[in-house]
Amino acid sequence: MSASPPRVTLAAVVPLHDSAEHLARSLGSIAAQTDPPEEVWLIDDRSADATREIAGRFARDHAGAGWRLLLSPTPGAGGTRNAGIAAATAEVICFLDADDHWLPGKCGRVRAQFAADPGLDVVAHEMDVRAADALDRPGRPTAHAAHWRSDQPALLQLYGRNSFYTSATAVSRVRLNEAGGFDPSIPRGQDWDLWLRLAAREGFRARVLPEVLAIYRQGAEGLSGDLRGRLEGVERILASHAAVVAERFGRAAQRRAFRRQMRYALQSAVKWSLRRGRPMAALWHAARWARQGIAQVVGG
């Protein structure tokens, strides 16, 4: 009779900053896991609302299950997540933003993937995107698994489309430390930057599960707030990794992936603007989208 694979240990890392409104639902989803993580690190970034009170109550109630509340030594989401990574001892880090929540089977599915294939660096999965005022109603599932190709270079795929939502991503702690964690100096897209740095490492391997295992709360601000700022952040991340991608896969492949990601980001911005009744904003984003199409024709 063959022995069962060793149990892979998990740590949940939850950055907190003025997160009181949705925090109980988020932390409750960790407590409700059918196969809960061995560690839960709640890292507060100097919240001014009731966040620390709520998080402290959960940490006390689940102290015997490895829950801990810490104060982040570095401000910002990236530095706060890094503090959780540094505190954790488990083999795999599962990230959860304080306004998202997991479905009950998430940790069990992630654990099983790493146990069956110890060479994996990342396991990601789909999320259901829901409006903040409709969290109990089905939303719009992401479709990253449909676009992910395990036989294609991960770095080139991630450069052309970020398939790893932070709350739907679990990463080997060893690999996170080797890559240096999140870069707090980047104002937007710290998670995508980290995934690209991980994927650039030799032997990187990832798996994207087709199951919806978490809920992403899209607030009234939508698409991470200011759309122009978000698009500028996308361009900065693409520019900062362009040389590595071009060296690895050629300049033509890098340019195609650049345009693919920009068109995807602009298309999302146009749709969001129209849904929010902002036609002038939609027109501005559509104009940039059209320029990307022209550049593709001219640039080949």
Characterise this structure.
The protein is an alpha/beta fold and 300 residues long. Residues 220-225 and 293-300 have low confidence and may be disordered. It has two domains: 10-218, Spore Coat Polysaccharide Biosynthesis Protein SpsA, Chain A, CATH 3.90.550.10; 227-299, no CATH class. Strands 1, 2, 3, 4, 5, 6, 7, 8 and 9 form a nine-stranded mixed β-sheet that branches. Helix content is 47%, strand content 18%.
**What's the end-to-end separation, in Å?**
58 Å
Helix content: 40-55%
Secondary-structure class: alpha/beta
The overall pLDDT, averaged over residues, is 87
Q: Which oligomeric state applies?
A: single chain
How many helices in DSSP terms? 11
- Can you say what the CATH homologous superfamily of the largest domain is? Spore Coat Polysaccharide Biosynthesis Protein SpsA, Chain A
Q: Outline the biggest β-sheet.
A: 9 strands, mixed
Low-confidence segments, given as residue ranges, are: 220-225, 293-300
Query: How many strands appear in the DSSP assignment?
Result: 9
Strand content: 15-25%
- Give helix and strand order, one letter per element, not per position: EHEHEHEEHEEHHEHHEHHH
